[in-house]
Structures are given as structure tokens and as C-alpha cells.
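User: I'll paste a sequence; please echo it back and then give the predicted structure.

Assistant: Echoing your sequence first, then the prediction.
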Amino acid sequence: MIDTGKEVIRERMQRSRSACLRGTGMNRALILILSVTAQSWALAAGEQGCLMPPDDPERFGARVRIVEEGRGPVREWLYWRLPRRVAYEYPDRQWAELWYRLDGGQVSYQRRVDQHKRVINYSPATLRLLDDNQDWERQRQLVSLAGLTNQGSDLYRCQPVSRWQGELDGSPATVFWSDALGMALRIQRGTTELLVTEFAEALATTGFFQRDRDYVDLDFADIGDNESDPFIRTMIAQGFIEHRH
């Protein structure tokens, strides 16, 4: 049978969601840099060039890259935002995470596996059962300012920002924050840089969220009833779900 026990599944979700970051040494720092294009993906005009905000701060995508000092780029993914929807896409692994802000402030979560054209849905009730706190603001903003202190106004790549300092996950950090976008433009924690090197506008963003229209949906609560499903077996083999006899 499939064990969907709270502790096992929470551990698996946390491991898979953070896999893109753990290999970079999260005890070091992150620098988050944003740059923008007009209608589709395009290379940024150099890391030291001026940034332009997207036309619509509620409808855009961004390419996020982690760069480690002495090693260069080590990982990247895509960030997508629409009103009440945020997603992180990992193209090299052909899967994505999606968060939906529901009425009353609750959050639902999806894991989309593009290779198999499947979507696993986690309702607010399921997330509570798993004791998995999906922090909407942190996913949307890429960081939470809680516990940080505003050090005043600054400029980052020609953009007005406010500079915040304090601790993130137990390490000293500096965050350059854009009020216009409601998110960090740069986060510095030690020697690791996290850069968003380019933006996509609303058309590409809408296309991402419409991609799964013909995918097969599966509620996480029903996984235990689908042990014979080849997709479930693949997820077990990849460590997303624990299988016990």
C-alpha cells in the first residue's frame, strides 16, 4: 500500500520543493536581480544595465537563476504571476508548483508534472492535515520581510528600492525591495547570488497557466486509491510518495 502519513509526505514535499536550492549551499547568500523584456523572453541587457518594470505588475514571468561565487550559475527556474496565482516552474525537471489564493485568504497548492501531463491537487484541508504552511506572501514576493528593518531608500539598477536588513533563515541578509512590484529585486546572503535575468509579459504568463488544460487531475487525498496508476508508481520511484508494504 501507499503510505500518505503526515510526516512522510510532508518530508517528501519539502525535499522536492527545495531541491532546486539545497545544492547551492543555502547557508551562503542569495542575491536576487530582476530584469525585464517587452513581449516575450529576451536576454537582459547585461547585469549592470538599468531595469524596466513590467507593463503589468500583476501579470508577468521571470527567469530566476542561482549563481554561486567561484562556480557561476548552478540552477535556474521560472517565476509566473497572475492575480491570485503564483507559480515556480522547473523546466529541466518538467514540473511546476502553483499556488492559488482563495476567498477568505486560504491557499491551495498544485504540483504539475508536464512530462506525464498530470496535476496533483492539494486542498487547504489537505495542507492543514499535512501541517504544511503554504505562505502565500513569501511565494508571491520570493521573500518575507518579517523580522527585517527598513534602512531607507536606495537605487538598484536605476530602480527606486527600499533596503531592508536582518536575518533570513538564520543568516544575515540585505534585501532590495521594489514597492512597484511588491517583491524583492535583490537579496544578498553571503556568497550565493539568485538572479532573475529576464521577464516575460502577460501573454507568455497566461500561456503558462493555460498549458495544463488537457492534463489529468488527481487529488492528493486519492493517491492511496491509485496504487496501480503508472504515474503514481513513477512518483514513488522518484521519491515524491512513500511506498510501503
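The CA atoms of residues 50 and 157 lie 5 Å apart. Residues 1-9, 15-46 have pLDDT under 50 and may be disordered.
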